[in-house]
Amino acid sequence: MATVNSYTGTMPTPDRTSLDAIVLAASDLLETDGLAALTMNAVAQRVGVRAPSLYKRVQGRDRLIQLVAEATLTDIADRLNAHSDPVRIASQLRAFGKERPAAFLLVMSPGAGTPVADDAFRHASVASLLRVAGELAGEQHALEAARTLTAWATGFISMELNGSFQLGGDVDRAWDFGVTRIIDAITVSR
Amino acid sequence: MATVNSYTGTMPTPDRTSLDAIVLAASDLLETDGLAALTMNAVAQRVGVRAPSLYKRVQGRDRLIQLVAEATLTDIADRLNAHSDPVRIASQLRAFGKERPAAFLLVMSPGAGTPVADDAFRHASVASLLRVAGELAGEQHALEAARTLTAWATGFISMELNGSFQLGGDVDRAWDFGVTRIIDAITVSR
DNA sequence: ACCTGAACACCGTTCAAGT
DNA sequence: ACCTGAACACCGTTCAAGT
User: Fold this and answer.
1) Residues 49-68 of B with CB under 7 A from strand D
2) A53 sits within 7 Å of strand D by its CB
3) Size of interface A-B (CB pairs under 8 A)
4) B12 pLDDT more than 80
5) Rounded to an integer, what is the distance from CA B167 to the centroid of its chain?
6) Average pLDDT over residues A41-58
7) Where do the CATH 1.10.357.10 domains begin and end in chain A?
8) CB count, 10 Å around CB of A166?
9) At B110, is the pLDDT very low, low, confident or very high (cuts 50, 70, 90)?
10) CA atoms of B110 and B106, how far apart (whole Å)
């Protein structure tokens, strides 16, 4: 029966890292020092191998960034799916943005040319918003309502993280104002 | 009196390019081949010099990207300021995004780490939206209303350009739905 | 005063050679 | 089977040398 300390026989070399560790290291670098600092060398150093070894587990830097994006979208999905109130769901998305701004911007407003996550992941991340918007707006306008709500929420959070709200004022108040008015606006019976 | 063909005397060498030409070449490269293709070498080739010569006119690649962003924001400001109807202003912003998607994404949803335009340029670009939102919402809620409208518009257009609207449906209809509902929602007397 | 080739430090990526 | 050093082509940037 194999144990942790079992005899390894003629096994050449045990794995020194894993894909998960690589993606995690890449996420850390992204959040700490930005996308430019997410180099194959820096990732390799974090996981304790040399850069060429990474190519045994991931196709290249672009694919690694894509994996980071997909892992981020999964985290967002898990977080949003835990709630059913539209105000709370939107607020959870904003909280995520504040905790992991670089990851949020990577997946929610990828610049031109950044490797993009697979559709399934992007879909899952906003499933909650979609569902709740449908409930509010009725089947007739479910999709339009969902797009209005998600566009506003991602736009607002992105602008907040970008520092695009430079005119002072109370950003929290603007958020509350927006949430209230938009939910009201997409609700069918008013 | 100096003319175009005036005697140049002992002038060493006439300028072979200009900052404007450099920024224009960089904008073209961004739009055609993406931010990664906007290299100092590629820009230099377009304007007919070698890469090191660019440093006589611009501090480096990051600053050049920033200049492209600022020129883009000026273009957006000019375009939006030509109108006063909120629906039309929003629609002009969307039209710009479709004409120059890479430039739009660069300035409206810059990824983490991309060099960012000076506040004054960002401010000017959305001045029209701000003014019109103030008229709709009244002084009391002018800022919140402006932020709601701009967040929605930039969020929507970014998602459209990103291909984030993957669920089919009529995107134009979703736009019309959003514009109507949001303008209604931020208008004071309803 | 502007432009250039050469050089430097750094990328991502490939691959033969090690264990 | 995984890991590595060396190599390659490409970056951005600097600078002495040309005109």
Assistant:
1) 51-52, 55, 60-62
2) yes
3) 153
4) no
5) 28
6) 98
7) 65-186
8) 12
9) confident
10) 5
Which residue bears the tokens 């007397």?
Answer: B189
- Nucleotide nearest A37 (Cα, C1'): C11
Per-residue pLDDT at A13: 62
What does the pLDDT read at residue B13?
A: 62
Could you give phi then psi for residue A12, rounded to 5 degrees? -60, -65
B11 falls in which pLDDT band (50, 70, 90)? low
Determine contact, residues A135/A185, Cβ cutoff 8 Å. Answer: no
Q: From the CA of A38, how many Å to the nearest CA of chain B?
A: 11
CA neighbor of A133 nearest in space, from B23, B177, B129: B177
Chain A closest-CA separation from residue B57 CA (Å):
24
Q: Which residues of A75-102 are buried (b: 16+ CB within 10 A; e: fewer)?
A: bbbebbeeeeebeebbbbbbebbeebbb
Residue B23, pLDDT > 50, answer: yes
Q: Rounded mean pLDDT of A153-179?
A: 94
- pLDDT, tens digit, 9 for 90 and up, residues A93-145: 999 999 999 999 999 987 777 878 998 999 899 899 889 999 999 989 999 99
> Are A113 and B178 a contacting pair at CB < 8 A?
no
Inter-chain touch A111–B105, beta carbons under 8 Å: yes
Of B36, B147, B169, the CB nearest to A143: B169
CATH number of A65-186: 1.10.357.10
User: Which regions of chain A carry the CATH code 1.10.10?
Assistant: 14-58
Q: Report the gap between the CA of A147 and the closest CA in chain B (Å).
A: 7
Kindly state the DSSP code that residue A83 receives in the 8-state scheme.
-
Please check the confidence at residue A9 and state whether its pLDDT lies above 60: no
- Say which CATH topology domain A14-58 has: Arc Repressor Mutant, subunit A (1.10.10)
The per-residue pLDDT for range A64-90, each reduced to its tens digit, is 999 999 999 999 999 999 999 999 999
Nucleotide nearest to B55 (CA to C1'): D13
Contact B117, B74 (CB under 8 A): no
